[in-house]
Amino acid sequence: MKSADQRKSRTHRDGCASFRETLSRRSAIRVGSLGTLGFSLADMLRLEARGESTGNQAYAAERGSASLPPARIKSVIQLYLPGGLPQQESFDPKPEAPVEYRGAFGVVKTNTGEIFSDNLPKTAAIADKVTIVRSVVGRIPDHGQACYHLFTGYTPTAVIDYPQVGSIVSHELGPRGDLPPYIAIPAKNSGSGGTGFLSSAYGPFELNADPGKSGYAVRDFSIPEGVSPERMDRRRSAREIVESRIRALEADRNTLDTMDDFYNRAFTLLTSEQARKAFTLDDGKTDGETEETYQLYGKDVTGLRESDLRFHPKGLAQRLMLARRLVEAGARFVTVEYGAWDSHVDTKKNCLDQMPALDHAIAGLVTDLDRRGLLDTTLVWVTSEFGRTPRVNKDSGRDHWARCYSMLLAGGGFKRGAIYGASDSTAAEPARDAVPLEDLLFTIYHGLGIDANKELVAFGTRPIEIVKDGKLVKGLLS
Amino acid sequence: MMRIGASCLPGCGRLKRVAVCARAALVAAALTQVADIATAGKMIHNIEAVRPRIGQRGTTVDVTIRGVSLDDAREVILYRPGIRVVTIGKTTTLAKPEGRWHGGYIDQEVVCTFEIAPGCPLGMHPFRLRTAHELTSLGTFHVGPFPIIDENEHAQHSNDTPATAVAVAPNVTVRGRLGGGGIDDVDFYRVPVQAGQRLSVEVDSVRISDHAYGDSEFDLAVRVLDGAGRELAGNDENPLHQQDPLVSLKIADDGEAFVEVRRSLFASADTLYCVHIGTNFRPLAIYPAGGPVGKTISARLLGDPLGEISETVVVPGKSGTFEYFGDAPSPLLLRASPFGNVLEEPDAAETLVGSLPAALNGILDRPGDVDAFRLTAKKGDRCRVRVYAATLGSPIDPLIRIRRVDAAGKPDDVEVEADDASYNLSNRDIYGMSFRSGGGLPDVLDPSVIWEPKADGDYVLEVGDAGGFGSPSGVYRVEIEPAYDAIHTVLACWTIDWAESMRVSGLAVPQGNRWTVNFVTAPFQGNTYGGDLQVVGHGLPTGVRVVSPPIPKAYHGTQWPVQFVADPGVKPGGAVFTLEVQPVDPSKKIESGSHQAVPFNNHPGGDAWHPVRTDRYAMAVTDPAPISIDIVPPTVPLVRGGELTIPVKITRRPGFDEPVEFQCDFAPKGVGLPPMATIAPGETEATLRISADPDPKKTPLGTGPLVVMATTTNEKIEGYLGVGRIRVSSEIVMLTVAEPFVELASEPEGVRRGGRTKYRWTVTPKTPFEGQAAVRLLGLPKGVSAVGTSPTITKDSTEVVFEIEATDEALMGLVQNIACELTVMMGGQEVRQRSGNGRLRVDPRL
Predict the structure, then answer these.
(1) Is B640 helix (H, G, I), strand (E, B) or coil?
(2) Closest CA in chain A for residue B676
(3) Strand pairing partners for B233?
(4) Residue B816 buriedness (CB in 10 A; 0-12 / 13-18 / 19+)
(5) Among the ranges given (A223-227, A282-286, B47-51, B660-664), the one the predictor scored with the smallest mean pLDDT
(6) Residue in B closest to A304 by C-alpha
């Protein structure tokens, strides 16, 4: 719901589409300085950088005056399952569909009386803590484009590179404590875009290390051996002297400012005990985690044996435990990637390989967050870039399907124990309450206290909504 | 990239048009589908490498065949004559497997001795290996005319400059390797030359590649330099060999020439190549590019740096495209046609064509050149007009127009204009390669149309280049003949990337067992025959039978199961055979042939730079399998919208207790099939549950074949392409698809939370059935359920009523896709049918 002022403003902006297209940098500055709030453009940009732009203020005022709940989400753990999770073999089984749609698995009853695929018995047992959306609507059944769409809310264009959700969160809300606001475990997916038109300072801190593997250590996240913190500090001072000289000669101060931001954050990370502790995960040796917690997340749960004779794949438990530790320590948005779900061939084997660990880890994470009292302020978001075709193909697999698929959401003010939306009899199309991806992102931003209607200024002149044409899905919220 | 040189070959712009289109598609495919390949299924081929790649005819060569699951190799099955395999060594397993792209790897090798006859046909010799239990994927070996030496670049970059060039004497083939690593490898060869002589250099790289997947590392370029380092000639791409460079020049001075072989683009990968360095005649085109079958023609060989010559060429006795080598290591392509040649009259405005059918031959020898042929046709004729130019290696991109000649004798409006707008390869006699952008094949540039003249009289057929290009070697040939009926059999690799899969297109029949392959019947351009077809095999081993039901018209152009049955007494062995289709009606006859295309240098998405096409199929009878499979032929029909269960039984050889997988590989159109299922160790029975789409458009009524394949499993080798597995087939059984028993429909109904309501469905009888059929509702949401036992109907029922109730858990609003399922007992077997698409609204409590 929008306030009257906001609606007016919006109408004005909508009516000025051609104006926006032709807006020159010079006229933008003039318009900015003559705005109703009396801000210069520079003022506005500075405010935006601090997450205090007019859009958010108006939105905050609206939230306060309307019946919408206050911002509930402090942190998001996004579990991204690249390749396309089969909705039929996970959250939206179709046991009554014809054989060529049904797939190879049965169903399990959830503790709320619904059914999940029998690949997810553990998650079914905590279904009263989560919401399943069975009617998400994507746009493009292509990995690269759908992944970009998922992470940014926009489909790729040749003209504008849009920022990821994590980058927007970082930009709008900034850090909480010493930790980077946006963290990728183990690393950012290469097809998911980047910081887009925002400064690269809002990109994710990438571990480039897998907490599920032995010898895990975050690269570039430790003071070199033999270097004391005091020596680090001296080196930092030396760098600043050199840099100030460069700054005096260098015309491109923006770049230097960005670099400065990086250095400062890196230094904070290197010297913060809080951060160091949050990133530590060593099988209970010093991390303070109990074996029971590791088992709760399914540390030893494995799938089928692959042809390389190794159990495949492992490490999700540790990745999600680390995500929880980072969230506890103040991270705003942690994206975790797990598995390879593009099962054009033998979906059954793909599921048997990966679902046991996924099932344990989701259930473990949600249970753990709930026990710690963090679930109300942390959103767990399990997602793929799209789902899979209703019909099983000739290779016993399923292909790409973006027209209707499922996601899991837990915590952060989202309903508990709900199934939102429904697919039709073969999981092909939404049968009710379709949720376009943009609406889902809008609703997540809403939970975070970010007005997704807000326009960020790209290239100095072009205002671009955080989510274009998104709507709040009230039915998802408690 | 085209380098300017003394022997700069024309037409690369045309070639680039194909290559660029294809490459753009490949890049896009690579960007978007890498993830697919990484997880879709490992592309494990039996044969990943054959070394060496080439041998000289008249010599004996030890050839190492490398790959996966090569145990107990018994026979090399060659498609062409000329090579005798005198020994097959013992298979050895490598200490450390070598990885290949997309999951393939090498962990075994076997050395075979190839005795190459002095008269062995030059060029590519495809083969497969028969092992105790498998027929391998395709491998290739090449035969050349020149003595062969190795580059022997033992120390990396030891011959990267003219100063360090490897000295060779002309008329030699060098087996070279451009190494990987961070520094681009360049290979130089030093050749003694004399003024006035010809020096011909041809590189084979893409054309001899045996990599299942490859990329720009196979795109090589060649230059010839003089002793002072000046470039005398160079080539990157050319119409004859596409990515493989070719250069031939007249040497101006006595001394030495230096041949440089390098990549067009840097790629950090090993690339094998052969460079033929000789004094041989190297024409770029032949004119006319064909002649009547079984005749001798006098042809002009064009494009050699020392000038044109005439040669006598004997045209084979069978229609088709054939090779002419002369004394060069690679051939020119010509056509053998069942009709005579008409040669363009260069000085005449129009060349008169006496009668059709005929092959019109000409050269677009200068920019803007358009040749015209006047011919006579009758309304009602159906002619196939096929242009051969780029297909044969000509640099032009032909465009034809057929104009009616008006009463004044002048060409009038265009009746037919044909360029290369379609990438339909089957119109160019190429099957089993539904690759993107025509797979980069130049054939797509040549038009091929069915022309039905609108009136009796004279017509003018014009031939030009789509871009106004012309060249002294711009040879073309237009074959005009009455369209004829032809349907071919095609063994297509319809797996992801069109990668060859022995699971899908292999033919290894265990002794005393069965194997079924789905062949495609592919109607030729202009085919009108639409009657039932029967499958006929030629050249199968004694004791091997082909079983396949007649193919109805509805399956022309699609897959159809063909079963091979090996008698228990037949000896294991291999064979190359053909499979054709002929009308069941013996009074009718059509043309038919066999086609298989196997991609090499493939890319994600299936665009191969080097497809190997064969006109015969290979099969093997292998050692007995540890399993056989039987299914119980259904005695009741599968009704539209229905479901049927078919018992499956495995017979295990004593002692064999591994899991067995089975899957229905063919069923009539509209029949839905479940994914592959596993029969656990110790078990022998399972069921196959199939369904029929209720839509009459998708599910034709009638009887069609159904077959189930079973396969052993292999924990070590991922099974997508079928390597390392033994497969057997059930008998082909016939399944009848019938009308549904009933149709059910309902008006939208509503139920309140906490309430009950009658949900009425009207029943329209369609096919009588015996006794009572229980009916249940499908698709009720949580909180809504039918009360009591399921109602029943008979063949005379007109209504069925359910009592449903809703609890407070039921989500309010409209529920769609509610259906009924009835269970009918027929012949002691449960037959299920679904029908209806009901809607129900859940309302709040009052």
Answers:
(1) coil
(2) A396
(3) B224
(4) middle
(5) A223-227
(6) B715
Q: Count the Cβ atoms, other than its own, within 10 Å of residue A11.
A: 10
Helices (H) and strands (E) in chain B, counts: 2, 64
CA dist B311 and B324 (Å) reads: 11
C-alpha A82/C-alpha A209 separation (Å) is 18
> Does the distance separating the beta carbons of B674 and A99 come in below 8 Å?
yes
Cα A304 to the center of its chain, rounded Å: 29
Give the DSSP per-residue string, B243-310: TS-EEEEE--SSEEEEEEEEESS--SS-EEEEEEEE-----SEEESSEEETT-EEEEEEE--TT--EE
Q: Mean pLDDT across the stretch B788-814?
A: 94
Return the number of other C-beta atoms located less than 10 Å from residue A415's C-beta.
15
* Residue contact B643–A99, C-beta within 8 A: yes
CA distances from A374 to A77, A366, A413, B9, B147 (A): 12, 9, 11, 72, 77
Is pTM beyond 0.95? Reply is: no
The answer to whether A187 and A245 are in contact (CB under 8 A) is no
Look up tokens 């931003």; give the residue. Answer: A445
Which two structure tokens, joined as six digits, stand for B473? 């070697």
Q: How far is B708 from chain A (nearest CA, A)?
A: 13
Q: Are B402 and B387 within 8 A, CB to CB?
A: no
Q: Which tokens in the block code for residue A322? A: 């680390």
Mean pLDDT across A161-168: 96
Cα separation, A405 vs A423, whole angstroms? 8
Q: What does the radius of gyration of chain B's CA atoms come to, in whole angstroms?
A: 32
Shortest alpha-carbon distance between residue A420 and chain B (Å)? 10
Contact residues on chain A for B36, CB-CB shorter than 8 A = 143, 342, 344
Q: Is the pLDDT of residue A48 over 50?
A: no
Q: How many CA atoms lie less than 13 Å away from A331 in the CB half-sphere?
A: 32
Place of tokens 């090499």: B600
- The answer to whether residues A370 and A319 touch, using CB atoms and an 8 Å cutoff, is no
> Do residues A175 and A204 lie in contact, with contact meaning Cβ atoms separated by under 8 Å?
no
Bridge partners of B778? B819
Question: Over the stretch A246-289, which tens digit does the pLDDT of each residue have?
Answer: 556 555 555 555 555 655 666 666 667 788 888 888 888 889 99
Which stretch of DSSP H or E encloses residue B479? Answer: strand B475-482
Contact at CB, A395 and B781, closer than 8 angstroms? no
Is residue A55 over pLDDT 70? no
Helix (H) or strand (E) holding B388: strand B383-388
B537: β partners: B579
Residue B502 exposed, middle or buried by CB count within 10 Å (0-12, 13-18, 19+): buried
CA B660 to chain centre: 29
Is the CB of residue A207 less than 8 Å from the CB of residue A185? yes
pLDDT at B640 (0 to 100): 95
Q: What is the largest CA-CA distance in chain A?
A: 73
Chain A residue numbers touching B35 (CB-CB < 8 A): 82-83, 143, 191, 340, 342
Q: Where does residue B558 fall: left (phi above 0), alpha (psi -120 to 50 degrees), or beta otherwise?
A: beta
A36 touches chain B (CB under 8 A): no
Matching residue, tokens 């601090």? A50
How many residues appear in chain B?
A: 846
